[in-house]
Structures are given as C-alpha cells and as structure tokens.
Prior knowledge:
Elements lengths: L2 H13 L28 H15 L5 H6 L5 H14 L3 H11 L2 H5 L12 E5 L12 E5 L14 H12 L2 H24 L3 H6 L5 H7 L7 H14 L5 H13 L4 H25 L13 H17 L2 E2 L2 H30 L4 H29 L17 H9 L2 H6 L6 E3 L10 H6 L2 H9 L19 H30 L6 E6 L4 H14 L8 E6 L9 H14 L7 E4 L4 E4 L8 H16 L10 H7 L9 H4 L1 H12 L2 H4 L3 H5 L4 E5 L5 E5 L14 H13 L4 H15 L4 H4 L2 H9 L6 H7 L1 E3 L7 H12 L2 H12 L15 E4 L9 E3 L4 E4 L5 H13 L8
Parallel strand pairs: 5-6, 11-12, 12-14
Antiparallel strand pairs: 1-2, 3-4, 7-8, 9-10, 13-14
Amino acid sequence: MTxxxxxxxxxxxxxxxxxxxxxxxxxxxxxxxxxxDRKLFEDPNNVAAEAIKLAHDYGSAYLDEYMNSNSFxxxxxxxxxxxxxxxxxxWALLQNLIYSVFSNRQNLSSSFLRKGFPINIxxxxxxxxxxxxxxxxxxxxxxxxxxxxENNEITLDFDLMKRSIKxxxxxxxxxSVVINDALGxxxxxxANELALSKKVELEDDANxxxxxxxxxxxPYLSDPICIFDTAYTFYSIFPKLSIEIQMKFVxxxxxxxxxxxxxxxxxxxxxxxxxxxxxxxTQINTTNESLLSSERGMNEGLYxxxxxxxxxxxxxxxxxxEIIETERENDQRMEVELINRRQRHNxxxxxxxxxxxxxxxxQQQQQQQSAEQGENRSEAAATSPLRHRSTSFTMRTSxxxxxxxxxxxxxxxxxxxxxxxxxYRHGYLPFDSFINEFANEKIEINKEYLDFVRQRPxxxxxxxxxxxxxxxxxxxxxxxxxxxxxxxxxxxxTSFFHSIFSGVRLDPFFxxxxxxxxxxxxxxxxxxxxxxxxPAELKKQFFVEFEGEQGHDEGGLSKEFFQxxxxxxxxxxxxxxxxxxxxxxxxxxxxxxxxxxxxxxLIGMLLGLAIYNSVILDxxxxxxxxxxxMGKVGTFEDLExxxxxxxKSLKSLLSFDEQQEGTTIENAFGSTFQVGITDxxxxxxxxxxxxxxxxxxxxxxxxxxxxxxxxxxxxxxSVEKQFHPFFHGFLLVTRDSSLRKLxxxxxxxxxxxxxxxxxxxxxxxxxxxxxxxSKDSPTIRNFWDVLMSFTDEQKRKxxxxxxxxxxxxxGGLARxxxxxxxxxxxxxxxxxxxxxFNAFLLxxxxxxxxLREKLLxxxxxxxxxxxx
Length: 868
C-alpha cells in the first residue's frame, strides 16, 4: 500500500468508520469509545493531519482491514476491551482476543510495538503449508533493516508491555485457563517452525525475540500447574535457537536488567518443582537409582538459567580493560615460567640420547605459542567491543589436561559473548541468586561425577558438573576433592606400574619427614627437592612423619603439620608477613629480606597442598589475597577489606567537594605523589607514585590517578617480589586443577580457611555415638553440658583437639560428623582423639566435674599429645 493510499484509508476510517458499532479499533469512528473528540474532526484539515500522523507512526497497523485480519495487543485496545467486557458482564470478548494473540506467533510478536517500527516492515509470505494443526496455514516473517542479530535493537516497547501485562493480570481469574492453553499452542507452533527448516527466517523476523520477553513477564511460568507442561515447552525452545539469537537475548536482557530477578525466580521455581517431583518418584520407587540430573526438564531449566547468568554478568560490574589486560599478561608470564620449570625437569630426565634437542624444540614452540596468543588477545581486545575469553587456561600448552578443563566449563555461548565470570566483581544480582540450595542438597555429586566421566566426549548428556555457577560451595568443594582423589589414584597407579616394568620402586605417596624443632627448615628442603624439582610428586597424597615419633598418618599428622608450620612461618620473627590490627588479617611485609623467595614459594605450595589434601588452615588473609590467587590484580575497591583506614581516607578524597567545603584539595589534604607504607617493623617505606612525586601535589584533576596508583602500590607493586614466588608455589600444586573454573575468589577463602562461624548446636545435632554410648547416656549429657559452658576460645581448642582445625568446614559444624566413642570405664586417663576421623574417645567418667577437669587438660595440652 502506497503512502498516499495509507493516508486516504485512515482519513476514511476517522470520518466514516467501518459501520460496526462493536468495533474495537479506537482509531475508527465506529468505535463507541473513539479516541478523538468528534467535534475536532468536523474540520477536514484536522482529520487529514491525524491521518498523516497515524500513517507515519503506525503504518497499516491500525487500519480496520489489518486489525480485522490480525489480532494483536496494545495498551489502548486492551483497556477498551476490558471496559467493554465489564459493561456486558461477559469476558468472552477478552478471552477470545487473548487466545487469538497468545496462541499465534505472528500476533503475539506484533503486540506492544514501539512507535514507528511497523512502518516499512514488509511481509514475506512462505506459502508452504504447515504439516501440523497447531501452526498457521502460512508462515509470515517480518523484515526490518533496523533489526538485526548483530545489533541490540528490538521492536518491543518494554514499558508499554509491562503495563499491559500488569493490567491483564488484574483479571487473572478470567483468563488464566485460556492463556495457559494459548501458550501451549504458541510454543508448539514455534517448535514446528524451527523443525520445518524455517529457523533462519524465524530468527530474522524483526519481532520474533519479543515473544520471549513477553512470556517471561507472565507469572504463569512459576505456577505449579503450568511448570511441567507450559514452562517446560517454553524452556525447551531455547536450546534449539542459534547462538547468535541467544547472544542478542542476553545483550538485551542485560540492558533490561531490572527484569532479571523475576526471570531467575521463574526458572528457580521450575527447578525446585522438578526436584520435588524427582524426590517423590525416588521415594515411591525405592529401587530407582536415577540421578537428579536425569529428571526430565532439568536440562532445559539449567540451560535457560545459564543464559540468565550471562545476562547477569553483562549487567554487572566488570573490571576495566586495562586491568584485564594486565592480568592476562601476568598469567602468560607465570605460565611460561611454569612450562620452563617443568621442561627443565624433563630435560634432566631425557639424558643425552638425542631426545634433548626435541625437548628443547618443543619448549621453544610452547613459548612462541604463548607469546602469539598474548599478542592476539591484545589486538582483539583493542579492536572489538565484545569481551574476549580469558586465556588463563587455553594458553596452557604443556599439558592436554588444561584444554579438557577449558572445554569442560565453557560453552559456545560463553565463548561467543567473550565472558570470563571471574572478570566480573559483581553481577547485577548476587551470584548466590543462581544457586538453588534445595536442588543442591539432592545432588549426589560423587555419582554425578562417575556418571559424567563414563560418557563419551562426543556424546555428552546433561550433568550439573557443567554448570558451576549453579553448584553450591559445598558441592564445588566435594567435586574438587573428587578430582584431587582421582589425581592421587592416577599417581599411585603410575607408580605401581613403573615399579613393575622398570624394577625401580617409586613411592606412591608424597611423604616428608620433619623434626618438630626444625619444622620450616625440613619442610623447605623436602618440598623444594621433591615438589619443585619433581612437580608430579605434588599430585600424590600428602603424608607427614614426625622424626622420632610413632604413628601412621591417616590425616591427623598432616593436619597437625599444617597447623604448626603456619603458626611458625607467619610469626613476626620471620618478618615475611605482618598482621593488621584493624582487620586481624595477614599481609606481605613490603620490607621483607631479599633472599626469601624459597620461603614464599614454600608457603604458596603449603596453601595449594592444603587445598589438594582437604586441610583447613588456621590463617586469615584479606579477600584480595584470594583474588590475586585467581590471577586478579588488586584495585581501590579491595582496600575496603584489606586496608580499611586507607580506603576511607582515599574515598573521602574522591568525594571531596571543593565548592561546598570552601577550600581546595591541596589545602585540605596536603598530599603529594610521594607516599609511605608501614612495614612489619613499624618503619615507613617511602615510594614515589610518579617521577618527582614529592613535588607533585594531589589536586581535583589528578586525584583519580593518585588513588589508582596508591592502591596499585599497596596491593601489587610494593609486594610484587613477595607475592610472585608465593603465587608460583601455589600454582605448582593447583595449576592443573579446575580451581579457577569452579570457584569464585570468596569461595577460595572458605576452601582454604574454612568458616569462623561456629554453631556447636549443629555439632551436637549431627554427632554420632559408638562403643556403647548414645545421645541419652549420662556421660554424653554431661559432656555436652560442659562443652556448651566453655568460652569461645575453649570451644575452638576442643575443635582443634578433635579435628585438627578450629574452623568449620563449608556448611557448618554439622558436616564434621563428630563420632564420640566410649573409651573404657571411669579412669584417670585423659580423653584422646583421632583427628583424621573426627573421632573423640571419651572415658565413662563418674562425674561431670571430673569430665570437665580431664577435658580441659587435654585440649590445653594438645600439641603432639592425644592426637592419634
């Protein structure tokens, strides 16, 4: 229809109408609730002006002939229909319209459009007949050059749509059944069109993506009646869509992020209901050993939740590109160092039989590949507006294991979007919003892992392991522990067969023997010789032997070793770390001696070994330390928890308003680009943030730069010599694990140091009893009365006595499963403990006073005594 014909048709419609007094078109004179003042249109010029405006803004959308042949919703016609239904006291008119719109892709996608978009949209008629009754006889696809898969434009008016849906839901009782039936028909139509080789045309439809945002706005997705049918069918569409249109959905949702919480709530309700159904089926059929991941519909729910997770990242707080590039360069340098170290060890093993040259050539190729990848990343980051995938794993060319980890936890959508979760400090919603605690409690992570590794790489089916953002910290730790145990088993297996075929016996365990009086010296020698020079040793199970003492390490001796060595090496006399009185946490001493690289490497290795062997350490670092262990760089935001006084001072500098305060920053603060940092001895170490910093005042213009440089100095540059070997030692142990892909920095802190929140009621509730004791035994009742009366410090001593650590594991003390065994009748002997089994051996003391006395003696003299 030409523009002139379009204006003429609107002119006739505004003056004469269509002749139907039941007309629902407010832009038609026959409508009883005509939008305009009829007296105004007595002047033909006014009619002509409005006809031109309608033609320009809406094209043919509001012509009677178009509205009679196409049903779609606008806020105005919805209001008019509701008014009409109220007048008639009959909702059939609204119900018929709702079904007509929500059961048809073309109708729903053409609803709630932004002004100006229907114009210039041509209709491409695909004359091939549908093979199913649920689809329309012909498929219509709308084209608009302004809407492409590459841009973020969409024809949907979000505000108008939300108001309309809110209005519609005011009459939920009248339309709920109809709209649920209609959605079922709609999703089948879309599925049919996708299956009939119409995917390209469908995704190129200018209005197609509107449907997903409209449906997500409906509360029915969380309705238990609709979840197993309507919601399941809706979520099943997403995996069938191309990566390109999924990317566009993510980008648009990141811009419309205020809706994200309701979207996530829909999917979490869906997952919860499917978990409940699985629980019911499992209880009914006790022989059913199917995993939660096999529940029909769970795959689709997690797939959609992952899409929402990516939108949450894009809508969150990402580090600036300069910081990201610095982190990547640091990763690359550290990777080359680790490759070189391993290569040197391999070269030593090769000998002079001609293989040495081949090894050297491989090393050069690996270094060149790492360098090329670094250059390519820098060029790509500089030219592309999209994020680029972190290469902290892809550049690991020395082993194929890292490539497997890379592909395991990444997927095409994440790679195409260029997302690396740990490059985002925060999402728009908290990351915990994507963890379904109820479902996580039902996930049997051991069986999930076994089921996953049995799959063929070219035919992977759904597994929770592929969705680390969904897993609780407890399940992530369990998964990491399984991975570590598999590594230990492989090392034992390798040692066994090496011993058989070579005749040279290799120890299947990583054993060290230390003297209590020379703990650090002996540990340093053992770890340096076996661990650094032979990195494969670190993948074996760790055993400790105290020289001159009997006892086989079943876990208790290792726990005691870690406890004792951390107490010593972090003490002030070594001068390697300093304690902050305000935060009660440890930080690197910027003035530490120059020759402590070996010691810092040792500490990093100990941290990695503790994680690898599931030992909780009694240490407290600020959160930035764990961010740095994940390859991150410290910035101003990190000072809030590591150096709170400095953070407050710098924040006041940034927020200082010279006009309001009536003075300048120079006069108020008197700061220059020369600063001092206090070291472990209390001395001030002076640094110039810029050349000639002493003579460069901090002003309103350069205060941002000052804060950036000062933060960088405190958290990075002043401790670079100390942190670098520390980080190196940590990576020697953890490099080949999936630590970075599974965990966030805050979770690494819990993994290393456990939780300081101790609920001894949880411990009592979960405790088990053996050798004649029960929860009602008099001695057991006395024991809990005594323990609950202890001070916090005494309780922590008891915890260390029985478990080797005064911290709670992730999930609280209930997860310790303390076993209290009767250790004979009344006696003068003290209680003892098997720390490796969390077993507490308690004699059947005759009185509560005697129990208290003996228990206090035991826990106050625990080192090297009573720990079996």
